[in-house]
Amino acid sequence: MAAAGLDVDALYRTYGHSVLRRARQILASEEDASDVLQEIFAGLVARPSQFDGRSSPTTFLYAVTTHACLARLRDRRNRLRLIDEQVRPWASDIDPRTADGRAQVRGVLAQLTDDEARAAVYYHLDGMSHAEIAEVMDCSPRHIRNLLSRIAGRLGEHKEAS
Amino acid sequence: MIDNELHVSDLRWDRLLAGELAGDAKAAVLAHADTCVACGSRLALLTRESEAFAMRPGLAPARSRRWWWAVAPALLAAAAVVVLVVPRGPKDEAGERAKGTGPSLIVMAGPAERLALVASGDRVHFGDSVQAGYTATRDGFGAVLGRDGSGRAMAHVPSRGDVMVALPAGTSRSFPESTVLDATPGAEQLVVLWCEAAHPLHPLLAALAANRPITPPAGCTAHHVNLVKQATPR
Ligand SMILES: [Zn+2]
């Protein structure tokens, strides 16, 4: 990034792949993921002050992408479609996170509170540690532990119900 | 479920790929990838994906155009200004730049009615317009210089004379002139300059003509954009 200011085009080139991949993971739709990618970078061009430089661009874009995707899940009221959808695997066969676990998490995202949904994405889809989630969500690791145990409860209910 | 505390998250891989990790942090994740098959394979996958994203052909112009339309109404309200500019950088927050930020410079190109933000590697066509823009907290001077596919160096702004044009301080402002690209195909280098003082252009044009790197005078900021110019698609 040039010292002169935020170069959105350079940001796009460096971080666009990560935004697109994460949006695809959360939304399980290539088309929706491309829309989110456009939405986020158009938003940065229009309102560059959203990125205040207090965190790294990666951390900032993780938060923005998660927010945009969860909002899209809610706004489009397509929760049921996503829950029923057979989601194709997004990673290699030997990914540390199991494909089953990911599909299950995606299925309950829309039923979680905003905080829970964000923590679930970071923990189950991005494989982040408690400390990393706390940093991105700007809250204490203790709060993250509480959120994750609530989510584990919901996942348990979901499993029994299915 | 695998323990996230023992493995490397996508966040850390993305930071590594973006060049945000250095020293011990970088060495630690790379060492882990060497010994953990799952993480090594994840890193390989994310690396391939990021490389594929960088190579996406034809993405930039279409994408830029969409950005442009996404923000166009607000900017058109400011009349002929066709500029998207980002005034703040990460360093501002830390107060490291007490004298205010340096200028931001951009280039937009395309058919006159559909200018879009362009960056190096983007394609432009014969007859396209090129318009530079800036945001600066101080009054300054500027120029837009270029070198076309035949190796000819020229000043696009100012279109005549050897003196930089005045650029009043402001946000999302256009350089006072735009250029229409001619039909010389090939590499079209553009250099947008903002300077605290007005400098003569002939030394810079001589460097461009000789295909030497331009050394902007002190107090200047340069924005380089290397485009590919080709015939207008029918
Ligand atoms: Zn591992």
Description:
The complex is a heterodimer of chains A (162) and B (234). Chain A has 162 residues and is an all-alpha fold. Chain A is 70% helix and 0% strand. The longest helix of chain A is centred in the C-terminal third of the chain and has 21 residues. Chain B folds into two domains: 70 residues, no CATH class; 136 residues, Immunoglobulins (Immunoglobulin-like, Sandwich), CATH 2.60.40. The radius of gyration of chain B is 21 Å and the shape is elongated. The termini of chain B are far apart. About 19% of the residues of chain B have low confidence. The chains are: A mainly alpha (162), B alpha+beta (234). The site of zinc ion (ZN) has 6 residues of chain B, from α3.
Quick overview:
The complex is a heterodimer of chains A (162) and B (234). Chain A has 162 residues and is mainly α.
Count interface residues per chain for the largest interface: A-B, 56 and 59 residues
CATH 2nd-level architecture of the largest domain in chain A: Orthogonal Bundle
Query: What's the story with the biggest beta sheet of chain B?
Result: 6 strands, mixed
**What is the overall pLDDT average of chain A?**
80
User: What is the overall silhouette of chain B?
Assistant: elongated
Q: What fraction strand of chain B?
A: 25-35%
Report the β-strand fraction of chain A as a percent range.
under 5%
Q: What distance lies between the first and last C-alpha atoms of chain A, to the nearest angstrom?
A: 48 Å
CATH topology-level name of the largest domain in chain A: Rna Polymerase Sigma Factor, Chain: A
Q: Find the CATH superfamily of the largest domain in chain A.
A: RNA polymerase sigma factor, region 2, helix turn helix motif
Architecture of the largest domain in chain B in CATH? Answer: Sandwich
